[in-house]
Design a protein that fits this description.
Layout: H1 3-24, H2 30-51, H3 57-63, H4 65-93, H5 105-126, H6 134-159, H7 166-193, E1 198-208, E2 211-218, E3 233-237, E4 247-251, E5 262-267, H8 271-277, E6 284-291, E7 305-310, H9 314-326, E8 332-338, H10 347-356, E9 358-363, H11 371-377, E10 388-393, H12 395-407, E11 415-419, E12 451-453
Parallel strand pairs: 7-8, 7-10, 8-9, 10-11
Antiparallel strand pairs: 1-2, 1-6, 2-5, 3-4, 3-6, 9-12
Amino acid sequence: MTTIAWSGVLLAMTAVPFVLSAWRGHSTAPGTMLSVGLGVLGLGALVVVVLVPSRIRTLTRAFGVDRVMGLHRWLGVLALAAVVLHAVVALWNHPALVNPLTARDTAKVGWGSLVSLLLVGGVAAGGRRPGARYEVWARLHVALAAAGLVLAALHVVWLNHLVADPVMRVCLLVLAAALLLVLSHRWVWRPLFSRQGAFVVYGVRREGPSVATLVLAPVHLRRGGLHFEPGQFVWLRLRRAVVGTEEHPFTIASSANVTGRLELTVRDQGDFSHRVAALRQGEKVWLDGPHGSFTAVEHGGRAGLVLVAGGVGITPMMSMLRTLAERGDPRRHRLVLAERGSEPLFADELAVLTRRLDLQITRTAGRRIDLAFLAEVLPPAPERDHLDYFVCGPASLATGTLAALEQLAVPASRVHCEQFGWSGPLPTSTTTSGMAAPVGPARPGRGADPVVVAPERGSGVRRSRRGGRHASL
């Protein structure tokens, strides 16, 4: 589905129940109509809030993960505001409901839903504090949201005045069916029964002291393996279970032309990444994906790509470059690397890629990526306005790069960003799209000149099969 189609579906799921409640309402009292309308609006928004982060692949492909999560946050605010106003108006109409201990059961579950949703908002705000553990935050967030939604459904069913109307009953049943279908697919079918997500560790390759590459092969090879666009990512878990299983996102760095094998490169910097890096040949893992819209190969025209990467942020860029080399792309591309001097990644293969592609590699050598730096690396206007820019790395690198591109008047539609962390969008006016990743390099310093590696003269594009090695995040 396209962005426009998905926008229409999500808008309809939020607005149609509200419009129908106003049309089919049996009360002409303004207070009652307002209370019911706000409640139905909050319920519809709450259903969409639950649906959009449920890894619907066509949705994340259409909008990008950052926009999907931004929509999740803003609709969450709308749902909470509508539910709070619904409660305020209901209390104004019926002051006896103020004491939940003496109120009817319908009011008690309504109070329970309101408290759960308020706690969801509090947990969402508190989870952004430095040092907050993602796993604890995520599970508490999901549990409270589920409680709020179930109690809200009981509130509507027990009140009976909406479900008694045949039109509203059909509308609410459609919402419930869509919700149950998506959630069962997300939380039951994929984790427990899907054969597509089962992979076996074919091999493990050390890329450096703290970096290892997993080579994965599908257990059930159907339709040629996992088909993905270069730059997309997968969620990885180490065992099959509905709840209690930790999972994290990792970018696919292997070529999209090689679908029967997947490679994920992991920097050993945490409990989960340590377990992943320690996997042995023959062990099984389970993947959910591919997801994301941080993809570059299909951008047409004669304009090339500018890839700006920090540390392990190079992994989606490797997928893009490998795929471009496999497909014999003739355009001129530029790769800007801010990497750890003690652990450069893919140096040998990048040298090979400069001979297979028209590729210029610039290493920052400790210099910050800012306006002056990019003015040296990029071609002058108007040529640079027709390039496509992909930025992946920690917030410090991404923020500086996006700000510099904005100062250079690069069209925002040409700029795509994938950031590290899960604390929300970057503080720039340039739109970002992509996924969250768990680790990142140190902040680049100042002072050194960039190191430029240009392709050999006359090398052109080689259409032979690619040598070198694969990798991923």
